[in-house]
Amino acid sequence: MTWKQLTAYLVGCGCCCLLLLASASGNPPPDGEGSPAIFAGNAEYVGSETCATCHDDYEAHLAVTGHGQNNFRNLSDRGCETCHGPGSVHMDDPDNAANWPRVDRLEPDLQSAVCRTCHDGAKQFFWEGSMHQARGMSCITCHSVHSPKSDTDQLQTAQPMEQCFTCHKDVRAETWKTSHHPVREGLITCGDCHNPHGSAAEGMITAVSVNEQCYSCHGEKRGPFIWEHPPVRENCLTCHSPHGSNHLKLQRTSVPFICQQCHANTRHPGTLYDASSLADGGRASNREFNRACLDCHASIHGSNHPSSPYLGH
Ligand code: HEC
Ligand code: HEC
Ligand code: HEC
Ligand code: HEC
Ligand code: HEC
Ligand code: HEC
Ligand code: HEC
Ligand code: HEC
Ligand code: HEC
Ligand code: HEC
Questions:
Q1: How far apart are CA 99 and CA 251, in angstroms?
Q2: Which one of 160, 171, 173, 303 has the fewest beta carbons within 10 angstroms of its own beta carbon?
C-alpha cells in the first residue's frame, strides 16, 4: 500500500478522529495527494536526516531493529516519516505539542493502519475482526518500534508470555498449576497454539479446530483406532484444560469423577452407593482404587486391541 492508498483507505473509513486531530492543530483536513493524512494535512517530507538532527537517540534505537536495516529502506525511503508522516509542520514549531507526530495519539485502528501498510499479510492477515482488534487494541499495544524488550518480534516485554499476562491474569494463574503445558519452562509458547493477530478459528488458535491443534503435537491421539472413544474425537477439552490443572495430566477433574460425568449408568456403576464403598470402608470399590477406571480402561483415547471394545489395554 502506498501513502496515497492509505489516505484513500483512511478517508474511506470516514474516521472523524483524523479530522478532529487536524482541526485541533489548526491544519486543514487531509488533502489526499501525497500526504499521509494522519498528521497535519499540509505537511511535507523533510527526510530522516533532518529528524535525526534533533532526535538522534531515536535513530540509534531504530538502527538495531529490522526497521532500521536495509530491507526496510528498500520498502520505503521515507525513514522516520514512513510511520510519523511528513514532518515539516512539526519542525516549523517543534515545541507545539499539537503538531507532534505521535503515532500513539491516533485512534487504535489508525495506529494499526500505519503498520499494516506493510504488515497486512501472513500472520497479520486476520487482524481485522480479531478479538484483539475488536477490543480496541492496536499493534503498539504489544509491540514497540523504538524500545523493544524482547530478543525477537519487538515486544514490550522480555518474554512473549509476559506480554500476554499483562492482561490474561487468569491464564497466568493456570500456568502455575501442577499440571500445565511447559510454556513457563520455555518449551512451547502461547504463539504455538494462538495467533495473537487473529485467526480463522475460534479462540484465535492456529489450527482449524481444537483437536487439530492438539494432534499437531500429540499425533498419536489422532488414531484411527479400532475402538474409538467418542468424546475424544469430539473435543479434547471435554476432559482437558489447555493451560493448566491441579489434577493429573491436565484433566479438568480427577478420575473416577471425570468419567462419571457421562457414565453414571454403566453395567458396573461407578457411583458411590454408601460409605462402605469408600477406601476406608473395608470393602473399597476397585473402581476408586489407584487409577480408578483407568486401571482397567487404560486406552482412554482409543484402543487398537482386537478384542478390547471396552478401551482396555
Ligand atoms: C528542530 C528540532 C526538531 C526536528 C528537526 C524534529 N523534531 Fe521532533 N521534536 C522536537 C522537540 C523540541 C519536541 C518536543 C518534545 C521533546 O523535547 O522531545 C519534539 C517532539 C517530537 C515527537 C513527540 C515526542 C513526545 O515526547 O511526545 C515526535 C514523535 C517527533 N518529535 C518526531 C519527529 C520526527 C519524525 C521528525 C522528522 C520528521 C522530527 N521530530 C523532527 C524537535 C525536533
Ligand atoms: C516503523 C514505524 C516507525 C518508524 C520508522 C519511526 N517511528 Fe518513531 N514511533 C513509532 C511508534 C509506533 C511510536 C510510539 C512508541 C513506540 O512504539 O515505541 C514512536 C515514538 C516516537 C517518539 C516518541 C513519542 C512517544 O510516544 O514517546 C519519537 C520522538 C520518535 N518516535 C521519533 C522517531 C524518529 C526520529 C524516527 C526516525 C529515526 C522514527 N521515530 C521512526 C513508529 C515509528
Ligand atoms: C514500510 C514498511 C513497514 C512499516 C510501515 C512497518 N514495518 Fe514492521 N517491518 C518491516 C520490515 C521490512 C521488517 C523487517 C523484517 C525482517 O527483519 O525480516 C519489519 C519488522 C517488524 C517486526 C519484526 C521484528 C523481528 O524481530 O522479527 C515487527 C514486530 C514489526 N515490524 C512491527 C511493526 C509495527 C508495530 C509497525 C507500526 C508501528 C510497523 N512494523 C510498521 C516493514 C514495515
Ligand atoms: C496481543 C499482542 C499483539 C498485538 C496486538 C500484535 N502483535 Fe504482533 N506479535 C505478537 C507476538 C507475541 C509475536 C511473536 C509470536 C508470534 O509470531 O505469534 C508477534 C509477532 C509479530 C511480527 C513478527 C512475526 C511475523 O509476523 O513475521 C510482526 C511483523 C508483527 N507481530 C506485527 C504486528 C502488527 C502489524 C500488528 C497490528 C496489526 C501486531 N503485530 C499486533 C503480539 C502482538
Ligand atoms: C492489552 C490487553 C491484552 C493483551 C496484552 C493480550 N490480550 Fe488477549 N485478549 C484481550 C481481550 C480484552 C480479549 C477479549 C476476551 C475477553 O473479553 O475476555 C482477549 C482475548 C484473547 C483470546 C480469546 C480469543 C477468542 O476468540 O475467544 C486469546 C486466545 C488471547 N486473547 C490470547 C492472547 C495472547 C496469546 C496474548 C499475548 C501474545 C494476548 N492475548 C495479549 C486482551 C489482551
Ligand atoms: C497447547 C496449546 C495452547 C497453549 C500453549 C496456550 N493455549 Fe490458550 N487456549 C488453547 C485452546 C485450545 C483454547 C480454547 C479455544 C476454544 O475455546 O476454542 C485456549 C483458550 C485461550 C483463551 C480464551 C479462553 C480462556 O481459557 O481464557 C485465552 C485468553 C488464552 N487461551 C490465552 C493463552 C495464553 C496467554 C497462553 C500462553 C501463556 C496460551 N493461551 C497458551 C490452547 C493453548
Ligand atoms: C506445540 C505443541 C503442543 C500442542 C499444540 C499441544 N501440546 Fe500438549 N504437550 C506438549 C508438550 C511439550 C507437553 C509436555 C510433555 C512432557 O512433559 O513430556 C505436553 C503435555 C500434555 C499433557 C500432559 C500434561 C502432564 O501434566 O503430563 C496433556 C494432557 C496434553 N499435553 C494435552 C494437550 C491438549 C488437550 C492439546 C490441545 C488443546 C495439546 N496438548 C496441544 C505440547 C503440545
Ligand atoms: C474422556 C476424557 C478424555 C478426553 C476427551 C481426552 N482425554 Fe487425554 N487423557 C484423559 C485421561 C483420563 C488421561 C490420563 C491418562 C493416564 O493417566 O493414563 C489423559 C491423558 C492425556 C495425555 C498424557 C498421557 C498420554 O497418554 O500421553 C495426553 C497427551 C492427552 N491426554 C491428550 C489428549 C488429546 C490430544 C485429546 C483429544 C484428541 C484428549 N487427550 C482427549 C482423558 C481424556
Ligand atoms: C463427555 C462424555 C464422556 C466422558 C467424560 C467419558 N466418556 Fe466414555 N464414552 C462416552 C460415549 C458417548 C461412549 C460411547 C458409548 C456407546 O458406544 O454406547 C463412551 C464409551 C466408553 C467405553 C466403551 C463402552 C462400549 O460400550 O464400548 C468405555 C470403557 C468408556 N467410555 C470409559 C470411560 C472412562 C474410563 C472415562 C473417564 C476417563 C470416560 N469414559 C469418560 C462418553 C464419555
Ligand atoms: C476392575 C476393572 C474395571 C474397573 C476399575 C472399571 N471397569 Fe468399566 N468395565 C470393566 C470390564 C471388564 C468391562 C466389560 C463389560 C462387562 O462385561 O461387564 C467394563 C465395561 C465398562 C463400560 C461399558 C459397558 C457399559 O456398561 O456400558 C463402561 C462405560 C465402563 N466400564 C466405565 C467404567 C467407569 C466409568 C469406571 C470407573 C468409575 C470403570 N468402568 C471402572 C472393567 C472395569
A1: 56
A2: 173
Residue with cell 525511503: 77
Angle ∠(308,311,313) on CA atoms, nearest 5: 70
Q: How many CB atoms are located within 10 Å of the residue 129 CB?
A: 8
pLDDT of residue 238: 96
Q: Determine the residue type at 236.
A: C
d(Cα 131, Cα 137) in Å, to the nearest integer? 9
Tens of pLDDT, residue by residue over 85-95, are 888 888 888 89
pLDDT in tens, 277-290: 555 655 556 666 67
Q: How far is the C-alpha of 71 from the C-alpha of 2, rounded, in Å? A: 17
Q: How far is CA 65 from the centre of its chain?
A: 22
Q: Which residue has the cell 478384542?
A: 307
Which residues, 6 or more positions from 32, have their beta carbon under 8 angstroms from its beta carbon? 4, 7, 8, 11
Q: What residue ranges line ligand 3, CB within 6 angstroms?
A: 66-67, 71-72, 75-76, 82-83, 103, 114-115, 117-119, 139-140, 143, 145, 152-154
- Round to whole Å and give the CA distance between 178 and 245: 6
CA dihedral over 219, 220, 222, 223, signed as positive or negative: positive
From the CA of 53, give the closest atom in ligand 1: 5
The string over 64-91, giving b where at least 16 C-beta atoms fall within 10 Å of a residue's C-beta and e elsewhere, is eeebbeeebeeeeebbbbbbbbbbebbb
Nearest to 99 by CA among 22, 30, 29: 22
